[in-house]
Amino acid sequence: MLAQTLSVVAPVFLLIGIGYGLAKFKVLSVSISEALGHFVYVVAVPVLIFRTLINSDLSGGLPLSLWASYFLGIAVAWSLGALVIRKGFGRDARAGAIGGISAAFANLVLVGIPLISAVYGQEGLVPILLIISVHLATMTVLMAVAMERAAAIDKGEKAPPLGKMIGGAAKSLVKNPIIVTIVLAFAWRQTGLELPGLASDVLNRIASTALPLALLSLGMSLVQYGMRGNILPGFLLGTIKILVMPAVVFAAGAFVFQLPPLWTTVATVCAGCPTGVNAYIFANRYGTGHAMSANAITMTTLVAILSTSLWILALDFWFKGA
Predict the structure, then answer these.
(1) Of 41, 46, 47, 215, which is least packed with CB atoms within 10 Å of its CB?
(2) What pLDDT sits at residue 4?
(3) Distance, CA of 266 to CA of 66 (rounded, Å)
(4) Is the separation of the CB atoms in 291 and 228 below 8 Å?
């Protein structure tokens, strides 16, 4: 059974490995890697999201229980990650915030969407896109506020007003292509119109490039992260990310909110996805936690082929036996 699951999951991570090899052995230059990543993030993935959302059955209303299950997992993982770095390793508040982000921010776009699509098909894309519809915006604001407050603590200064911090983070969201796409998709749904055949065909062709190119792009980007010393903090954060967070999401979805089995499964697998690159981006911006965030990204991505397969297998056994 595990071999069968791996056979479905393996192509997803093989593409990441191919991307890594292309960049590592300089078959493709860094400039091409950056251009590919930009295309995926600005064009291909937004088109995939738009096409999926306008065609999906969302008649169930706001999926508050789905969001609550997933963000409960984020809250637990973030708190544990920050606690491990602050108390376990005696690091400053900014490093603690990076630890929380590294343990709680999943790579839903570049890994989650291709993985869920490969395993659960079009039906599985609905719950993950519903999670993404609030995940990116909410986490961007939370990460910005947490880092600003942590920076103020480290400097012994008073934190900026909460409204100012939220406003600054919100400004960046207005230009985010994924956020813009989600807004446009829901706006289009309100019109009740169908896309013309030609437009639909063009979108389908672009969307078909999103998943393989996203994985190749992620693999190429891993070359710049690598392993950077301070292995233990990254290992502990990675363990929280791929074991603790999905376990909390599963428990919340299955027992607390009693979500449909597919939604619980997708939310759990999403929670078990590797750490997103945003952790490293914030570490760079605030000048701390580079090694542990890079190590968390690299470690969780390297083991994800096995860890996600085991989660998928365990969830399949659970819901078949339930």
Answers:
(1) 41
(2) 78
(3) 10
(4) yes
pLDDT at res. 321: 67
Structure confidence by residue, pLDDT tens digits, 90-112: 999 999 999 999 999 999 998 99
pLDDT of 213 higher than 70:
yes
Average pLDDT, stretch 247-261?
97
SS3 of the chain: CHHHHHHHHHHHHHHHHHHHHHHHCCCCCHHHHHHHHHHHHHHHHHHHHHHHHHHCCCCCCCCHHHHHHHHHHHHHHHHHHHHHHHHHCCCCHHHHHHHHHHHHCECHHHHHHHHHHHHHHHHHHHHHHHHHHHHHHHHHHHHHHHHHHHHHHHHCCCCCCHHHHHHHHHHHHHCCHHHHHHHHHHHHHHHCCCCCHHHHHHHHHHHHHHHHHHHHHHHHHHHHHCCCCCHHHHHHHHHHHHHHHHHHHHHHHHHHCCCCHHHHHHHHHHHCCCECCHHHHHHHHHCCCHHHHHHHHHHHHHHHHHHHHHHHHHHHHHHHHC
Instruction: Give the confidence band of 180 by pLDDT, cuts at 50, 70, 90.
Output: very high
Give the chain's domains with CATH numbers.
2-321 (1.20.1530.20)
Q: pTM for the full model? A: 0.90
